[in-house]
Amino acid sequence: MVKICARLEAHGACTDPLCTEYHQVHICELCGVFCASTKWYEAHLAGKNHRRRLGGLDGRQYQCTICDVQVSGQRSWVQHIKGKQHCKNAEINGLSADVAPVIPDALPGKLFCGVCEKYIPTVLWASHPQSPEHRRKEGYAAFKIALEEAEKDKHGVVLSEGLDFGIVESADAAQGVSRTLTIETTVPSSRIIIKNVSLSSLFTGTQSPFTVTTAVEGSVLVYRRPTTIGVRFSTPHSGRMDDRLEIIFEDTALRVTFIVARVLKAIVGSQADYALLKPTAPFQPRQRTRAQPVTQVVPGIPPPSNNVIPYSIKLPVAKISESLSVALSETSSRKVLDLVRRVFLPKVLDSSTYSRYFKTLLWAEEHRMERDLEHYDIPDAQLERHGQYYHLTVLGLAEKRPSVLVGDNFLVQRHGAVEGHWYEGHVHFVRQASVGLRFDVSFRGWSAQQRYTVRFKLNRIPMRRQHQALDTAFAFDKFLFPQRAHILRLVARPGVIPIKPFNPLIATNLPQLQAVTSIVLQQPGSAPFAVFGPPGTGKTITIVEAMKQLLKNKPNTRILATAPSNSAADLIASRLASTLGPDELFRLYAPSRHLDQVGDELQPYTHRKTLEGQHGCFSVPPLAIFKRYKVVVCTCVSASIPYGIGIPRGHFTHIVIDEAGQATEPEVMIGIKTMADNATNIILAGDPKQLGPIIRSNIARELGLEQSYLERLMSMDAYDAQSGHGLSVVKLVKNFRSHPAILKFPNERFYANDLESCGSKNVICAFENWSKLPSRKFPIIFHSISGKDDREASSPSFFNIDEVTQVRKYIQLLRDDRQIRVSHTEIGVIAPYHAQCVKIRKALNGVADEVKVGSVEEFQGQERRVIIISTVRSSREFVDFDLRHTLGFVANPRRFNVAVTRAQALLIVIGDPNVLSLDPLWRSFLNYVHLKGGWAGPKPTWDTTETVDESGEYDMLIRAAAVTDMNLLARRIEWAVGENVKTGASNEGDDDDDDNDANADRPWRELE
């Protein structure tokens, strides 16, 4: 039972500001809001929140009469009626897929909660009002009403609008700017006194940048004679500041006290930047549009390069089953996950179920990739004709969003064409912003004014190559699920030891020397060997040295060396080329790779095939010549080519995978399951603590596709870095990249404090004593700034103009500094959101064009003297805060690890500490920087000496603080007018899937 305030029941008002009893009088059943007076209740009923819920009550749940299912929300409805299963059901019933939804008055077994705006099962209805989510939303709605009430003019007193100082340049903000707020009474006979003027700082924990400069307490308002209150804004910091000015009045004639509040806000930044970078259009989520079904496709003309490799083994189609496709099309990701686990995945993962398990994950990923690719469809495209080619402009092509390769294809339909009739256009060449397509000769009716609908089609070749490998019978436990018993002793042979390294630096690095020695002395067919290479420890140098030593000491060695990307494979090839000639080393490229994308130093190690009327493309030499090479280097996906052209299993004595942590397990298995035999040795090099492969499907990610083969092995007992040292794994510990201060935090957090800083002092200590460092011997800066994350048009990706400005300021400081010379190519800017990268490049245009700006994924494996990180996310809505959606993948530990370990000499992180500190990892890092003196900007709002709670409930704490502020405001209003609002507690928000938005910032992997 709730105890009602006795004063409220007896007198209709309670003036005790410390009263803790319940002040409920009216309840809005629709909104679940408590109102402490009839006046407030009537105001609530007329308010926009209540009217919005009233008008949208029957629009929250839709019934599809074709599929006989309920769909939640208009956005989900639009996706549902464009889905494959819905369109198929409509076709079976001879109905249009574009059916109008039926809005049910009620759902069987469910009741609608207006506060939470969703249907609740009847069996849970009684307890639902006490749920943390309901109480949080209930309290927030009540607070909104209290705040709206506080901001209303009352009793004939009229205040000017809230003071918005707008965008204030940094120099002006440092000196201070002033504004005035006017107050006047519109009632001639009234007698109203200003009793108090105060600021109510909102959750900052620091001193407000706003100050009231006019003493007006005790002043009496006079009719037609406005009273002014001066407010001054002054701060040395950049970013967005806000506060609330609360004025208490007393109407002495009516003996009534009341509050009127006004919002104060200002932005310290660059007006020019805001004009340049502001959203191009208000954000509107892009709706998935599938205008017409595909019933007939006229095949296009593929490029000649499609047939330059003489495959002897046919690639399987490996189409997803209809039942799995239907399951993956379910709107609730939680239901999909449960269904896939129960129905499609084997109960255990072992050698006998390995293929089925990973094939299912591949299909889940492919299903998601197809959906994501739809976002790039062009509903109103134009084609330029140049002879037999049609040029199509593709936005984002230069940034590989999406990635388009020679051999890919599009579906094209002329506006006004027969429904369902499409032409397939094959990509013959890719330029900076356009692609060249070829269609069948029946593709007619082109004109410069003609418009087309263009759909992107997923190139399934990489997926089919993985399915092909998984379908092979090769499934030895010692390769797939190695145990300690599978690890064979190292065998020394005469003349093998001691090893004389080709690279003399390895002789001074004991872990590297141990890794090379172990690889050379492995018995044939031993369990896979892992070179665990944390950032900057030289894992690629180590495996290249190992390959050279194998070839030197074991003349019959044949090596297949792979990596997930062409850039990583090129690095291996270029380092091997220093000792191997073109008759020993072959760099295998897919025909889709353009000749100009390969450097001159590697061209002699390739094979080309001349095409009629063209420059030619990469191919493979005849089988007899191919077999002569001692080392073949290619990407993981292209490792299927040797199998496809007839290279026998066991031809390669060693299969080496560099950057193995960035490849999916099925990718790595392309080379292993098609080329290895019982005597093959497998060497993996990488870091499972850094970024894994890019996975777009949250279902596939949850079920394990994001875990690399290397990471899975490293989690097994046989690969313990201590007990398995030298036999199954070697952990490299000498870091040659980063300053000790930059290395210290990730070293302790991810690498058991094993790493040693061994970089050149001239490089890593270059920024010590830099004049802009808050602490002269600590080359890390965390720049605290409270900005605003924005989105624009139909892009779900976030950007933050305030942080863009700050990034450019630091680059200008570095550029203009005469103490330390640093070129633009030595600076890297990392941002987790694609939109932020675009805005930063725009701001640097003409200022620092050579500075590389990119995602964390784009910087993995790279380094720069200076790294600047923009974290982007910022929020002031702490009451309705959702940690998962606000921080998103900014809080991913691996992404964090990669980002902070790219810097050699100077690391600058720009972000909102009030948001970042909600994540335990980020809070620990912020504490480290603050305690070492590297903090710039407004100080932390928490005690940085306190031990961090790894349970990660800081979002709940900050919401509790926000609720406290809500209660205080409501209580002040109660005290002033005898009315009250009862607010509730807060807890976690919904756990709905947000995969659509997240994937906007996951780059597309370029798989050959």
TrEMBL record:
An example molecular function term from Gene Ontology annotations: ATP binding
PANTHER family: CANCER/TESTIS ANTIGEN 55, CANCER_TESTIS ANTIGEN 55
Name assigned to this protein: RNA helicase
Segments of skewed composition (Basic and acidic residues): 999-1008
Ranges for region Disordered: 982-1008
GO CC terms in record: cytoplasmic ribonucleoprotein granule
Domain C2H2-type: 64-86
Annotated Acidic residues bias: 988-998
Subcellular location: Cytoplasm, Cytoplasmic ribonucleoprotein granule
Alphabetized UniProt keyword annotations: ATP-binding, Cytoplasm, Helicase, Hydrolase, Metal-binding, Nucleotide-binding, RNA-binding, RNA-mediated gene silencing, Zinc, Zinc-finger
Pfam (any one): MOV-10_beta-barrel
Family statement: Belongs to the DNA2/NAM7 helicase family. SDE3 subfamily.
Chief localization: cytoplasm
Reactions accelerated catalytically: ATP + H2O = ADP + phosphate + H(+)
EC nos: 3.6.4.13
GO biological process, one term: regulatory ncRNA-mediated gene silencing
SUPFAM superfamilies in alphabetical order: beta-beta-alpha zinc fingers, P-loop containing nucleoside triphosphate hydrolases
Matching InterPro entries: DNA2/NAM7-like_C, DNA2/NAM7_AAA_11, Matrin/U1-like-C_Znf_C2H2, MOV-10-like_beta-barrel, MOV-10/SDE3_DEXXQ/H-box, P-loop_NTPase, SF1_C_Upf1, Znf_C2H2_jaz
CDD domains associated with the record: DEXXQc_Helz-like, SF1_C_Upf1
